[in-house]
Amino acid sequence: MPNQSRPATLKSMAIALGVHVSTVSRVLNGDPAGVERAASTEVVARIRSLAKELDYRPNTQASNLKLRKSQEICVLMPRLTDLVMATIYDSIDSAAEQAGYLTFVANTEDQQARQMARAEHALRRSVAGLIVGDSHVGETQPLLDLLQRKHIPYVLVSRQITGHLTAGSDDEMGGWLAAEHLYQQGCRDVAILAGERHASTGADRTRGFIRYYREQGITLRPEWILNGPFDSLTGHQQGEYLLGLNPPPQAFFAVNDFLAIGLMGAARDKGLEPGKDIAVVGFNDTPLAKELFVPLTSVRLPLAQMGLHAVELLHKRILGEPAESIILAPELQVRASSSRLRRTD
């Protein structure tokens, strides 16, 4: 019998049973065709009985190195402190588990150098594939180029780049819906808190918003379209600046809820009430949006579905099956921050 003071191995069990180590491997690693060729029913039963007796656990790390594959998925996220990204990752992790994968997340801080370093570390672990949530528009794509060149399965989530498989939302349509609502509220002088320049989410939402107003014959002021990080501090700072203008904008579209929340804080500091003195629309419809002192109108995205579809698409890529991008439709949730404006006409 194998020395029970040490973990059982395929080799030690093969010696104890008087069979070849490859036979033990086929039986315990789930190769039905190989088992039928290599062993009788009686030998299979003996191998499984001994493995159970010794509480044998496969060395998956060694198997992965040998086979150059694993059941792990690396998820590259810009910031896990971002509730939207955390929600998407939670869905990815649940869907991956259902599909037989384990996930681990790498926080890239939305920097391409960190993105590449984290991805290279994942590739050294022979991951089954990658889900990328921080690709940059308008720039070279060294990571995506590398993955394509090495034929490594990957899919984008939330962000979109032409020519790359993605599970995302129709962000341009979301911006269009926000603009349509504000226009119907009588808002003509509108500012945009547009987020990071390199993020497809902010760029597409801004584009859709501007397009709607252009179709109504209105050109929005370019100096009222401000870029910056997707956080409440930036929203507050940009809100202070815009609300300090004479005259200030009548309405505000923020490409995520945190920018909108920061702007609403700046309005409060100036004695202004969203929904009465100004109109504010956010994006993503995070759970906090409807709980604010003035509930926030926001464009809702199916974030959990986005994560689920990212795993589905990646699984198809891993299996070598054809796959097409999935783009989900947004919905506008109208609340008090934009629906009760005081009329000045």
Description:
The protein starts with 9 loop residues before the first helix and ends in a 12-residue tail after the last strand. By secondary structure, it is α/β, with parallel strands linked by helices. Helix 1 packs across helix 2 (21-28), helix 9 (171-184) crosses helix 10 and helix 11 (232-243) crosses helix 12. The model is unreliable at 63-68 (pLDDT under 50). It contains 13 helices and twelve strands. The strands form two sheets. A six-stranded parallel sheet has the order 2-1-3-4-5-11. The protein has a six-stranded mixed sheet with strand order 7-6-8-9-10-12, with helices on both faces. The chain has helices spanning 10-17, 21-28, 32-38, 41-53, 60-67, 83-98, 112-124, 142-149, 171-184, 200-215, 232-243, 257-269, 303-319, and strands at 72-77, 102-107, 129-132, 154-157, 166-169, 190-195, 225-227, 251-254, 279-284, 297-300, 326-328, 331-333. The protein is 44% helix and 15% strand. Helix 12 links the parallel strand 8 (251-254) and strand 9. The protein folds into three domains: 10-58, no CATH class; 69-169 and 303-330, 3-Layer(aba) Sandwich (Rossmann fold), CATH 3.40.50; 171-302 and 332-338, Rossmann fold (3-Layer(aba) Sandwich), CATH 3.40.50.2300. It holds the Pfam family Peripla_BP_3. InterPro entries: HTH_LacI, LacI/GalR-like_sensor, Lambda_DNA-bd_dom_sf, Peripla_BP_I. This is Substrate-binding domain-containing protein.
